[in-house]
Specification:
Elements: H1 13-27, H2 29-58, H3 68-96, H4 104-131, H5 136-168, H6 174-192
Helix pairs in contact: 1-2, 2-3, 2-6, 3-4, 4-5, 5-6
């Protein structure tokens, strides 16, 4: 039986959105990844705030309003930092450690976990400190108090996902894959930074 293809306009909404995303990804890869990162980072922060509010309400504690400035900070971070930095990191990783390289699976994972993850986490703390209009003392205090704990949690949570991402996900989809995991990771970071 021959398969009949549907015109894009007749396809379900989710398929049209996917098609549009793929077109934008091909045409504007950095901008598309940046916008996606910004949106998903903001959603991760918003999700955290909603879950925290529900927990507080459940225990009878007073519930604060949604911190839109906090959500905006995560959106800015995702758009300006996560999207572009991740894009270039994955592109460079492909060039530095091609899939034909011996032990590329191990080398890529070590590069990501021992070099990129600690640096990127520190960058997160630094940029968030700037976006919160806090000084160097606050940054130093926050890093001393929570960086090591957050990095150990990063290694625990992200290592299996990054193993899959950097070795089996096509390079053009790695930022999106990481953003989907980060949706929940940013919820953790938001709680740790308090």
């Amino acid at each position: 039986m021959p398969v009949q293809s549907l015109p894009v306009r007749d396809a379900p909404v989710h398929l049209r959105l996917l098609q549009q995303y793929l077109v934008l990804l091909k045409k504007y890869p950095i901008l598309t990844k940046s916008v996606t990162s910004g949106i998903l980072s903001a959603l991760g922060n918003l999700l955290t705030q909603i879950l925290e509010a529900k927990q507080k309400a459940k225990h009878g504690a007073p519930v604060k309003e949604i911190d839109t400035a906090g959500t905006a900070r995560y959106a800015i971070y995702g758009f300006l930092i996560t999207g572009p930095v991740s894009h270039f990191f994955y592109q460079l990783m492909e060039a530095w450690i091609p899939s034909t390289d011996s032990y590329c699976i191990v080398k890529r994972l070590l590069l990501d976990r021992l070099i990129f993850a600690p640096s990127f986490l520190l960058l997160f703390f630094f940029v968030m400190n700037i976006l919160e209009f806090k000084g160097w003392e606050d940054f130093d205090k926050k890093v001393r108090k929570t960086y090591w704990t957050a990095l150990k949690m990063n290694w625990k949570v992200w290592t299996p996902f990054q193993f899959i991402n950097i070795n089996f996900v096509p390079v053009q989809f790695r930022v999106l894959f990481a953003n989907m995991v980060a949706l929940f990771w940013y919820a953790y970071l938001a709680s740790v930074r308090k």
